[in-house]
Amino acid sequence: MTKITRSVTPTGNDRPDSAVAATMTLEFTEENTAAHAATLEDLFTPVELGSLRVRNRFAMAPMTREFSPDGTVTDEVASYYARRAAAGVGLLITEGVYVSEDSGPSTRVPRLFGEVQLAAWTRLVEAVHAEGGLIAPQLWHLGAERGDHPAYNAELPTLSPSGLSSSGKSRGRAATIDELARIRDDFARAAAAAKDAGFDAVELHGAHGYLLDQFLWEGTNKRDDQYGGSLEARTRFPAEVAAAVRDAVGPDLPVIFRFSQWKSGDYAARIANSPAELEVLLGRLAEAGVSVFHASTRRHWEPAFPEAEGPDGQLGLAGWAKKVTGLPSIAVGSVGLDESFQVAFQADGHAGVSGLGPVLEQLGRGEFDLVALGRVLLSDPAWIEKIRDGRHEEIRPFRAEDRETLS
């Protein structure tokens, strides 16, 4: 297929910042160029997520850092987020945040409960707002992935739908109905605390093989009560959590749900084997109060259901989420990189910078409202500014050691 190289020069006059972007060369396939003429400038236009107006199309993806001793975000962590807000990120989504005493294994993952912890979050939110950014916490319960020997509250049992890890091994035990009700209420309490701390939205972590996803996926949900069996039944508990969170934060605060097909250690896993199944799954969550879907993929440009006929066969997972629900979506997965995310976990991992052509093609097709950036913002807080201003040679490629700092 013929490729066409063209230059786009965004003026930036209607952006929140007035800097003029330098010319950027991008590649488009011939068949997509005429029909889908998204430009770099389109990524810098404001977008509305319900009542929330985001200054551009860029979000920061949640990335666990473990720099919060005793679950309390420090001034250094606040500065880490504020730097990225100052450099142009429209919506920052925090690292996963524990919602309860039995959420996860680490003493250094931040929590959304406790007087000291909540006061620290308030200061962090204020620092981000001072730089013009918006911020949402990712509410997190690991379920079986908490492990059998957690460092944090080892005396508490590890609970999940069926006491199974993503690999199918026995881990912890199945939660009772009463325990599930308590966990649901923990999510709601954390969401209310987030609103009180000044957060602009909340995200539920329903991806990657953690608790909510363990209910969605038949590989980890073997329950024979109302929470197991059919896809509709497996969606019941995540939907109950979403409804409780919606009640806790009111009708206006955006509630984001992050979901994925893949699981930790099983990249071929699927919770929805067809667009129809995806519609059932996401539809129940939307009815419960979810207002934005964050589709986590390893490579954002890969079609989610390539077997679909016609143009739908090109759609990524975020595109399908928007198509079947009519709600805003967030795309993510190796944006601006030439290697998928697993290099982040390799001792000598490295990912170079690649073009934004696929992102612009997807935006031109209306597949997403925001695009989330992960590793590129770990390595280079000013990545968005450099893209906007055409300073591509200054971009710092991702290296695995970037995980170990709060630069």
UniProtKB/TrEMBL annotation:
Keyword Flavoprotein appears in the UniProt entry: yes
InterPro entries recorded: Aldolase_TIM (IPR013785), OxRdtase_FMN_N (IPR001155), YqjM-like (IPR044152)
Domain spans labelled NADH:flavin oxidoreductase/NADH oxidase N-terminal: 42-393
Gene3D superfamilies tied to this protein: Aldolase class I
Keywords: Flavoprotein, FMN, NADP, Oxidoreductase
Cofactor: FMN
Name of the protein in question: 12-oxophytodienoate reductase
Species assigned in the record: Sinomonas terricola
